[in-house]
Amino acid sequence: MDFALVLVVLTGLSGLVCAAEIVIRRIANSENAEPSKNVAVEYSRSFFPVLLLVLVVRSFLFEPFRIPSSSMVPTLLVGDFIFVNKFAYGLRLPVLHSKIMDNGDPERGDVIVFRLPTDPSVNYIKRLVGLPGDTIAYVNKRLYINNELVELEQTDMEMDASSVIALERLGDIEHNIRLMRFKAGSDGKYVVPAGHFFMMGDNRDNSQDSRFPQVGFVPQENVVGKAVRIWMNWDFPETPQWTRIGNKVE
Questions:
Q1: C-alpha 22 chain-centroid distance
Q2: Together in a domain, 108 and 22
Q3: Is 113 left (phi over 0), alpha (psi -120 to 50) or beta?
Q4: What 3-state class would DSSP assign to 181?
Q5: What 3-state class would DSSP assign to 205?
Q6: In this structure, is residue 250 part of a structural domain?
Q7: How far apart are CA 230 and CA 235, in angstroms?
Q8: How far apart are CA 208 and CA 200, in angstroms?
Q9: Segment 162-189, tens digit of pLDDT
Q10: What is the number of domains present in the chain?
Q11: Which regions in the chain score pLDDT beneath 70?
Q12: Backbone angles phi, psi at 187, to 5 degrees
């Protein structure tokens, strides 16, 4: 179910009912008659301001998402609830997704929520690695952008016996990635077409991203927004990780 569509429909219907009620009340007042009470009208008057507020905030300001998989470990964990900045790259109409105001373009290294090109009803979250026109190569667990090796620094951090954490630098953005010791990387070379982006998960050996045909290159119009902050972590039935609350997504 498209929640944005449901929200737009409910807001529109309740708004129409409220507008009709105002017209009917004015007619009744002009005729010195008492307008009859209606349960639907009372509910619409109560819910319309709330629905409108939720629609505006969710469509143009911030939208909450829950991380369902480990593809962005160690940056984001399963059970993280995040806020996504919807106006970071401009404003789009809900449901139609057409841009009505530009506010800059996504930058390399941004963590972005986007609608899956092969199934727009599904949202994915990955890190933007390749911009339009870039040549991206991933060979032996090393990333190359336009034939230049991306700086990678090994750390002493380990998530478990089968993986290591490394510090990757994409321009001015530093972030940790996870590499599996005993799992081959998904090697390949890609040229990003105009109007598209190349996305990769920080859990490089366990991420279905632009290296795979199920995802591929992501059109600019599929971008939902920029992940900015963790507001909760709870992977039920495990206990919440309170220390992650408020952490910035970098």
A1: 39
A2: no
A3: beta
A4: coil
A5: coil
A6: no
A7: 14
A8: 8
A9: 899 999 999 889 999 999 988 888 899 9
A10: 2
A11: 1, 31-36, 158
A12: -75, 155
Determine whether 207 is an active site residue: no
| Residue written as token pair 């998530």 | 159
Residues 16 and 47 grouped into a single domain: yes
Q: Hey, which residues does 174 pair with through a beta bridge?
A: 169
Coarse DSSP helix, strand, coil percentages of the chain, rounded to the nearest 5 percent: 25, 35, 40
Same domain, yes or no, for 203 and 165? Answer: yes
Which tokens hold the place of 122? 């599904």
Same domain (yes/no): 28, 122: no
Q: At 242, is the secondary structure helix, strand, or coil?
A: helix
Last residue of a domain, one of 60, 79, 98: 60
Supply the Cα-derived Rg of the chain in whole angstroms: 23
Distance CA 208, CA 156 (A): 26
Q: How far apart are the first and last CA of the chain?
A: 31
Residue tagged active-site, from 14, 59, 71, 210: 71
CB of 145 closer than 8 Å to CB of 136:
yes
Report the predicted TM-score, pTM, of the whole model to 2 decimal places. 0.88
**DSSP class of 248:** B
Residues 172 and 226 grouped into a single domain: yes
Write out the residue range of the structural domain in which residue 236 sits. Answer: 67-244
Strands (E) across 93-149 are located at: 99-102, 111-116, 119-130, 135-139, 142-145, 148-149
Catalytic residue (choose from 59, 86, 126, 210): 126
Task: Look up 126 and say whether it is catalytic.
Answer: yes
